[in-house]
């Protein structure tokens, strides 16, 4: 089988026939071919004219060329079937352009007994009877491109496999091949700076250059706000790859949407450019503007006869000495209305509505100012603020404020402002003491010893002490209630103390008797209360038993017991009094 290959037939003229194949140079590897010429010496569409006949010179015949088979136009019926190959398979058109056509096929099922030497491609133009060979000599390719065709050519295609015995039956393409001009869909490329609103001043020129694509040359149409252009003011020049719209002196009426439409055989592409012309027209008065980036604030000194306070307001730049200049001066109108929504603490909430006249351009925002009623000076709070509601903070307590709002666009601030009718009074709020509710706590508890008695050894004749600490119902001090001092003539109760508690009024106190535990001292489980040899002391929960000049007889187990209404507790210790040594 023949391997799949792609080739383009070499250029050749119609005068090169099969009988003259011996004088044709070998086919190059490129395989490119030109369309065969029409009868009568005329060149086939898209091809070059036949070269003029060269001077005749005897040339010896090439023996290898005579052996090459001629390109047949029909199958010889006398040839045996097994000697010639069968017809190629799957003949199809791969690509058609405005000057070439590419066809492909598959090798035949039978290559013949003598083998395959190549393929011959032939064309038959519409209305003609003869087939014209594209390649005179067979080519071992399965894809061939025919070039130098003319737009409008119509022809049939067939291909035949060739062996040394001759050409086999051809494979004919049933459909007609038509060479047509390639259509490139229109496309518009809008420059980056024109994708946003294109802003110009009155009197400046407008020059828009919009490139586009399309083949053949498309039809270009411009419209302004959906209507045709005014040819007296707007000029349009359209080339093969771009379209230019030019206005020598722009006016405010030139603002709007300019739409470019590119049409090509039922296909179209559209692009829109928004143009905004700002400035004053002929006959309009010139107005001085504050600087566009923000608000210029300056002090205005009053005259000597005027006792009004110094005003801090909107400053205007000095007028130019030349009055012939006519620059842009189209400022927006002030906000339609403004009102004070709410006043709380040191804040005031404002709301306003956008202006009815934006000055034929987009608003850059609003400038909010405040003025104190005492001084009358205006201070800028917000600049180029876009929302229509705001909150003014950090107002001084005790002052009354008024507010005003300016509109701002590319030309500057509005000539006037919308001011609030009512004043915002910042009132000092009363401080009301709200004491926390007091939850009375129960301080009473059963006795418990925090420090027990310790065993002790003493010497006869020297007084000794036994100590421990007990906790039960602690005292409530006056300082804990926020009082500097507290005095009372009430006697100290027996077995308790007076507790201080808040009364019904914050400046009043109530007294509650808190029971203290009763302390009992015992020796060997015998009560020793009232014995003059022992003295019991109790101070701030510390219980002390003093034994005066003990003797060995005072040795034993001593117990301290604390008792109150909630319970009792006791601790023990052993006291040993050593006898003195006798000599």
TrEMBL record:
Domain Ig-like: 186-274, 447-572
Family: Belongs to the immunoglobulin superfamily. MyBP family.
Keyword terms, alphabetized: Immunoglobulin domain, Repeat
Organism the protein comes from: Odocoileus virginianus
InterPro entries in alphabetical order: FN3_dom, FN3_sf, Ig-like_dom, Ig-like_dom_sf, Ig-like_fold, Ig_I-set, Ig_sub, Ig_sub2
Annotated region (Disordered), positions in chain: 1-83, 309-335
Name the UniProt record assigns to this protein: Myosin-binding protein H isoform X2
Biased composition (Low complexity): 34-57, 64-78
UniProt cross-references to Pfam families, sorted A to Z: fn3, I-set
UniProt-listed PROSITE patterns: FN3, IG_LIKE
Domain Fibronectin type-III: 87-182, 334-430
Gene: MYBPH
The keyword Magnesium belongs to this UniProt entry's keyword annotation: no
Top-level lineage group: Eukaryota
């Amino acid at each position: 089988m023949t391997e799949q290959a792609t080739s383009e037939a070499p250029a050749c003229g119609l005068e090169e026939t099969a009988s003259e194949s011996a004088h044709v140079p070998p086919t190059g590897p490129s395989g490119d071919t030109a369309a065969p010429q029409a009868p009568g010496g005329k060149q086939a569409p898209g091809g070059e004219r036949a070269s003029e006949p060269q001077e005749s010179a005897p040339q010896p015949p090439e023996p290898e060329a005579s052996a090459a088979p001629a390109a047949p136009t029909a199958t010889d019926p006398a040839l045996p079937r097994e000697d010639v190959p069968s017809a190629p398979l799957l003949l199809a058109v791969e690509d058609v352009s405005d000057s070439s056509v590419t066809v492909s096929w598959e090798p035949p099922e039978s290559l013949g007994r003598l083998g395959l030497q190549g393929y011959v491609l032939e064309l038959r133009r519409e209305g003609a009877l003869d087939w014209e060979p594209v390649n005179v000599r067979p080519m071992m390719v399965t894809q061939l491109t025919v070039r130098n065709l003319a737009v409008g050519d119509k022809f049939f295609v067939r291909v035949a496999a060739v062996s040394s015995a001759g050409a086999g039956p051809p494979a004919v393409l049933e459909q007609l091949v038509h060479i047509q001009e390639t259509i490139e869909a229109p496309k518009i490329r809008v420059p980056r700076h024109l994708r946003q609103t294109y802003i110009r001043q009155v009197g400046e020129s407008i020059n828009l250059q919009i490139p586009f694509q399309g083949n053949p040359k498309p039809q270009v149409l411009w419209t302004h706000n959906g209507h045709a252009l005014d040819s007296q003011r707007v000029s349009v020049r359209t080339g093969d790859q771009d379209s230019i719209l030019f206005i020598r002196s722009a006016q405010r009426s030139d603002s709007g949407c300019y739409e470019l439409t590119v049409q090509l055989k039922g296909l179209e592409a559209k692009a829109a450019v928004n143009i905004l012309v700002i400035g004053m027209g002929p006959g309009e008065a010139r107005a001085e503007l504050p600087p566009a980036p923000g608000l210029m604030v300056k002090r205005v000194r009053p005259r000597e006869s005027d006792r009004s306070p110094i005003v801090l307001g909107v400053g205007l730049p000095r007028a130019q000495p030349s009055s012939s200049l006519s620059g842009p001066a189209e400022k927006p109108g002030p906000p339609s209305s403004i009102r004070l929504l709410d006043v709380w603490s040191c804040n005031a909430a404002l709301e306003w509505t956008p202006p009815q006249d934006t000055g034929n351009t987009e608003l850059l925002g609003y400038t909010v100012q405040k003025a104190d009623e005492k001084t009358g000076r205006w201070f800028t709070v917000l600049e180029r603020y876009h929302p229509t509601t705001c909150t003014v903070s950090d107002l001084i307590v005790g002052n009354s404020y008024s507010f005003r709002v300016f509109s701002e666009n590319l030309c500057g601030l509005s000539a006037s402002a919308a001011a609030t009718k009512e004043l915002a009074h910042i009132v000092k709020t009363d401080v009301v003491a709200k004491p926390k509710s007091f939850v009375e706590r129960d301080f009473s508890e059963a006795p418990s010893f925090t420090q027990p008695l310790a065993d002790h050894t003493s010497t006869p004749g020297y007084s000794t002490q036994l100590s421990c600490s007990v906790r039960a119902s602690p005292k409530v001090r006056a300082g804990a209630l926020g009082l500097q001092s507290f005095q009372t003539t009430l006697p100290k109760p027996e077995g308790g103390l007076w507790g201080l508690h808040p009364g019904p009024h914050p400046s009043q106190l109530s007294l509650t008797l808190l029971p203290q535990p009763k302390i009992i001292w015992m020796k060997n489980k015998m009560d020793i209360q009232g014995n003059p040899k022992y003295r019991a002391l109790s101070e701030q929960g510390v219980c002390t038993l003093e034994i005066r000049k003990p003797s060995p007889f005072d040795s034993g187990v001593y117990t301290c017991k604390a008792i109150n209404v909630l319970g009792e507790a006791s601790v023990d210790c052993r006291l040993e009094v050593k006898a003195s040594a006798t000599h």
